[in-house]
C-alpha cells in the first residue's frame, strides 16, 4: 500500500473511531443533556458544527432510559416484534415520547435509530435523517398543530421525512386527513418509520396511513403516486446539490394540479434560493414570511441568547409551491 493510501486509511479510521466514541458518549446520556453532535447534518461538507438543535416547540423524552431496543422486520417492512435476535434485519434504537407544549393530543412514540455511525452509513445513502429531528421538521409540526383542520379530508404526503417523519405523523394523529403517506429514501429511516407507525396506529384519526421508501432519483418509486396529493410536506431537503432537480421532479409529479407543496428549510448558503429558482419552472412560488408566530418569538430569543445560532443555517423559512397550469 502506498504512503498516500495509508494516510487516507488512517484519516478514515480516525474519523470512524471519533464518531463511534462520540456516539457512545451521547448514548450514555439522556437526550436533553447531550452535547451538540458534530456536523451540521445537511452541511456535512461544510464541516460546521451542530450548534443549535431545537426551538423547544417539540420536545423528546427517552422511554425507558438506558434501554436499547431491537426491532425486527419482515421482508415487506412489517414490524415483527421487539426482538433479541442478532440477525441482520434487526435495527438498534431507542423509543422516544415526543410532546409539543400546548398540544396535548400530540404525544407520539417514535423509534430513533441508535446514534452509532457505521462505515456503511458513511459511504451509503445520505444519513442526515437518522441523526436527529431537524429544526425545520420541528417547526412544521408546530405549524400543523397550530392549524387544526387545514388537512381535514386531504391526501397528504411527506417527502424526505427522516427517521421520525414527525410532520406527517402530526397530520395522521391530529387532522382527520383522507390519506397520509410518509416517505424517505433511506432504508434505515424507513424501518424506523414502520416501527413508529405500528406503535401509534391507535392514535391515528385516519386508517389510511402508510409508509414507503421514496428515493427522488427513482421514478419507479413514485410514478404510481402521480397527481395524488393535495399537500406535500418537505422539511430541510433542499441542500443536496446533486438532488435538487430530482426533488423538483418528484414534487411536481405527486402533487395534484389543485394542490400545493409546503416547503420549509433554512437558506443554508444559498441552497434554498437555488432550489426555489429551479422549482419556479414548475411551480408558482410564494414565500410565507410570517409562518409561525411562536417560531418568530423563539427565533428572537435564541438570536439574543445563543452566540452560536446562525439564522442562515438554522432558521427555517417557509414557502408554498403551487403547480403551474
Ligand atoms: C436533513 S434530513 C431532513 C429529515 C427531516 N425532514 C427533518 O427535517 O428532520 C434530509 C432527508 O432527505 C433524505 N434524502 C436525501 N437524499 C434523498 C433522496 N435522493 N431521495 C429521498 N430522500 C433523500 C435523507 O434520507 C434525509 O432523511
Automatic annotation (TrEMBL):
Transferase is among the record's keywords: yes
Protein name per Swiss-Prot or TrEMBL: Calmodulin-lysine N-methyltransferase
Pfam families the UniProt entry points to: Methyltransf_16
CC annotations in GO: cytoplasm; nucleus
EC assignment: 2.1.1.60
Entry-linked InterPro entries: CaM-Lys-N-MeTrfase (IPR025800), Methyltransf_16 (IPR019410), SAM-dependent_MTases_sf (IPR029063)
Location (main, coarse): cytoplasm
GO biological process: methylation
Organism: Salpingoeca rosetta (strain ATCC 50818 / BSB-021)
Keywords: Cytoplasm, Methyltransferase, Nucleus, Transferase
Compositionally biased tracts (Low complexity): 19-30
Compartment(s) of residence: Cytoplasm; Nucleus
Residues covered by region (Disordered): 19-45
